[in-house]
Amino acid sequence: MKKSKSIRSKILIILLPLFFIAMGILSLTGYYNSKKIITNEVKTKMTSQIGVLLENIDKKLSIHGKIVETTRDLLETNGGVLEKDSYKNLLNKILPSNNETSGVGVWYEPYKYNKDTELFSPFAYKENNNIKYTNEYGDSNYTQEEWYKIGKNLNSGLGWSYPYVDNLTNEAMVTAIVPIHSNNGEFTGVVSGDINLSSIQEMISNVKIGNTGYAFLVDDKGVYVATNEKEKIMTKSILQDDNKSIAILAKEMLSNKNGVGQYDNGSKKHSIYYAEVPGTNWIVGLNISEDELYSPLNNLLKNNLITVMVATIIISFIIILFVKKLSESIETVSKLSKTIAEGDLTQKLDIKSEDEIGQMCNSLNVMNDNLKHIISNVSENLEQVVASSEELTATANETKEAAISINKSIKEVSEGNNLQIEANNNVEKECSKLILSIENVYSKVEEATKVSEIAYKSANNGNSVVEQTINQMSSIDNTVSTSSQLVDNLGEKSKEIGDIISVITEISSQTNLLALNAAIESARAGEAGKGFSVVAEEVRKLADETSRAANSISLLISDIQDLILQAVKSMNDGKNAVRGGITLANDAGHAFKEILGNTTGVVSLMNNINDLLKQSVNSTTTMTSSIKETERISHKVNNYTENVVSSSEEQTAFMEEVSKACEDLSKMSVELQNNLSKFKM
């Protein structure tokens, strides 16, 4: 047979994995929550840093743009055209107002400056901290340049060219353009302003994000305007990056303008936070590796794992100690339950705890004491039941023998009564002859005297038999009364046994309820309470066996009580029948006394027959009537005796049944004693 696992192993198998899982879930939850918080904080910081960059770039571009717009406004105030010498003064005054601005120029549409001049383009620029003015670009077809077309296509506002590298200075530049309109709103040219992007490039390259993070700036074609990799500036587009994941992300950046994205750089992942520079289509991006981004989170995860491992070891040790103590208590309870199930009621538990196990131990001790008390009481009462059943058996046998004797005597009375009837018939015949043969009375006196003497003897014998019958009936009545009293006593004893069985049944029910409560408590405790459930099941089985035994005894007692009630009823019926027989026998005795008196009168008349012949005839007639009455009474007595015989036979059969029931009761009592002897107390 396969050995079952101990409750200690079961609890540890359940609790420890659950604890490990719970700690793992707690750690992972904390990790992901921390990651979410750190991600939000990083996003906030990166967004803030991008905002600072955008603000600084926008500030530089806005100041530069204001110079261009101011120049345009001054020109439009004067109708869009100035004297040629006035342009130099205007440009020389405006250009120094912003250090970032490297050149400002006015570029007219063909023949819009005047009808005699096709192209006119005054331009001032900085060179070696000096401002130089030139109009040499008027010989070039600038109207075909991209930046000029941008300004021409603007109705209003400020436009920007693509960043480019100046051929003279070899520095990155960008041009701001605004359109010029005449007083009637006609487009006449553009004002341009070149700004050196070196300060913006320096600002971008100086941005440090952690240890490896950096910033970059690209135009709307993806060309790097500023980055920490100088070889890429103004030469390479992010859309053509060797890393395909960066190129894919670049398309999203140029399309979405604002947001965050990730790409793979070999074995590491990077995040790029990006936003659009206001007024341009340029994109500022912040690039940082996720390893560096989440390094605090990884450190937190390591610390959490160490904490979880230490906590797991400590709590596992505590759980093992607790389960060991709990298992020892349950094992003690299990041993007591096993001894009770085997019938040994001499053991007790000594557990002083006030928890559910302590309560269960106290309940088992109380149940043990109650079982000992019940079994002791049942054993004592069984001895009384056995003694009473034996006494009742003896009484039933005596009653049966007395009934047989009565039956025999009644039969003898019946036979004597039949003889009496026959004699009465003969007397009647003789009396009839006497009346018919009155003349021959003397010759027949002797014969009549003999017949009278025979009648006298028969009547005297009948009277003796009736007296014996009366005496026997009285004896039967006394015996039946005694038997009835014993049966009543047996009924009372059976009721006491029934009460005891009821107590046993009630205690079994309470025990079963205690077992049920223990099972419920064990179910509430879950796997930790399976040991309680086993003990409760054993207690419940013992309670069920006790209840079934008590129910069986109760059914037997109920059957015995029914038989006793039937016996009492039959005895009462027999008692009434016997008393009726006594009454009839007394009546028969009185009748026989009358016969004796009449017979004596006949004898006296026979002695005086000579003197009282006529009186003899009358007396003979009277005697004939008396004989007929005697015959009628004799027939009636005969019927009564037959009824008495039948009742006696029924009484005998009933007493046999009572005797058998008593024997069965005695056997069942002995069997119950044998079962109770299995318990040790």
Automatic annotation (TrEMBL):
The chain crosses the membrane at residues 12-32, 305-323. One of its GO terms (cellular component) is plasma membrane. It is a multi-pass membrane protein. One of its GO terms (biological process) is chemotaxis. SMART domains: HAMP, MA. Residues 324-376 form the HAMP domain. It is found in: Cell membrane. Residues 395-666 form the Methyl-accepting transducer domain. Keywords: Cell membrane, Chemotaxis, Membrane, Transducer, Transmembrane, Transmembrane helix. InterPro entries: dCache_1 (IPR033479), HAMP_dom (IPR003660), MCPsignal_dom (IPR004089), Sensor-like_sf (IPR029151). Belongs to the methyl-accepting chemotaxis (MCP) protein family. This is Methyl-accepting chemotaxis sensory transducer with Cache sensor. It comes from Clostridium frigidicarnis.
